[in-house]
Write a structure and sequence with these properties.
mainly alpha; 10 helices; 2 strands; 2% strand; transmembrane helix
Length: 335
């Protein structure tokens, strides 16, 4: 095989991967849109925890949409992008090609999952303080801060790229300083990965210990079935959320490892590996896994969240009659 054939085969392989990633993004958008529709449509799902899951689904949906647009137009050029003016070209480079929007939505997704964890943590570990601490106003403020801060801490990326005068390239990477990639890599790893994951792991450990202690106490006291059912329901919900967290750790880790090596795969990056074909393929695979995290959450809800499965039936089958309709929905009771 000569060099030209090898190059063409490489391009074809990259495009196939990009097509998979674009399709993955579309599936993620539809799946998270389904989560929002079901929770907002079905009345017995209207509670604080599920509203926070809607907020998380919106962040994941926007991240999937951004990734689809990026791989269609910028990285893999599956669709030719022809800016009509210099202003549109500059906006495209700074918002999309710089990965500013991707990083902002990544932070938003991670910290919105932290907010879901916080709500469950207070409900289980500090139930007497739930109504006072988690008022609607406070939660709205917290969610707003998550979105605003996520975009603010991604702002440096707006200054890592500029428009190109070359006819075959729209954007050029231009770091404000040679140390910028190293600083931003560490900064992103700490803020976007290590910090939220550490907080959530500690919180889930404390929740699990508390729930086991409560279940043991209720067994010893031969408590009423309703009280024991409440603890079991909470354990099931925490188990579902731990699965969401486990998927995030599994699917994000490779991408963040590559971030610690290089911010961008260019020949001018801090390690020679950053400009190699091996790194390029690694980042494509890592991005494939990364985006899949936003796709998999609706699937986890379907298999691990009983109330969501019931909500799906209610939302899409008008003939479905909920069994035991007078039973108290204990799964989301904060006390």
């Amino acid at each position: 095989m000569n060099a030209t054939e090898e190059h063409n085969e490489e391009i074809a392989g990259v495009k196939r991967v990009c097509q998979i990633m674009a399709a993955e993004g579309v599936i993620g958008v539809l799946g998270n849109l389904l989560v929002c529709y079901v929770i907002l449509r079905v009345k017995f799902l209207h509670n604080m925890t599920n509203y926070l899951l809607v907020n998380l689904a919106v962040a994941d949906m926007l991240l999937c949409l951004e990734e689809t647009l990026y791989y269609l137009t910028s990285d893999c050029k599956l669709i030719a992008f022809a800016p009509v003016s210099n202003g549109v070209r500059d906006l495209f480079c700074r918002i999309l090609a710089s990965r500013f929007l991707a990083w902002a939505l990544t932070y938003t997704s991670a910290y919105n999952l932290c907010v879901v964890t916080l709500e469950r943590y207070i409900a289980i570990v500090h139930p007497l303080h739930y109504a006072r601490k988690l008022t609607t106003g406070r939660m709205v403020t917290l969610i707003t801060l998550v979105w605003v801060i996520s975009f603010l801490i991604s702002l440096p990326l707006l200054f890592t790229i500029e428009t190109s005068s070359y006819p075959d390239r729209i954007c050029l990477i231009k770091y404000p300083h040679l140390l910028f990639p190293i600083i931003f890599s560490i900064y992103s790893f700490l803020l976007g990965y290590l910090l939220p994951l550490t907080l959530m792991i500690v919180a889930y450990y404390k929740m699990q210990v508390t729930l086991k202690r409560q279940a043991k106490a209720l067994n010893l006291q031969h408590a009423r079935a309703a009280a024991y059912d409440l603890v079991i329901a909470r354990q099931n919900l925490v188990s579902m959320l731990k699965t969401v967290l486990g998927a995030l750790i599994l699917l994000w880790t490779l991408d963040y490892v590559t971030i610690l090596l290089c911010l961008q795969h260019t020949e001018e990056a801090q390690f020679l590996f950053c400009g190699s074909k091996g790194y390029h393929y690694t980042t494509l695979f890592a991005s494939l896994l990364f985006t899949f995290n936003s796709v998999i959450n609706p699937i986890i809800y379907e298999f691990k969240y009983k109330k969501f499965r019931q909500g799906l039936k209610v939302a899409f089958c008008s003939c479905f009659k909920r069994q035991g309709g007078n039973r108290v929905d204990v799964e989301m009771v904060p006390l």
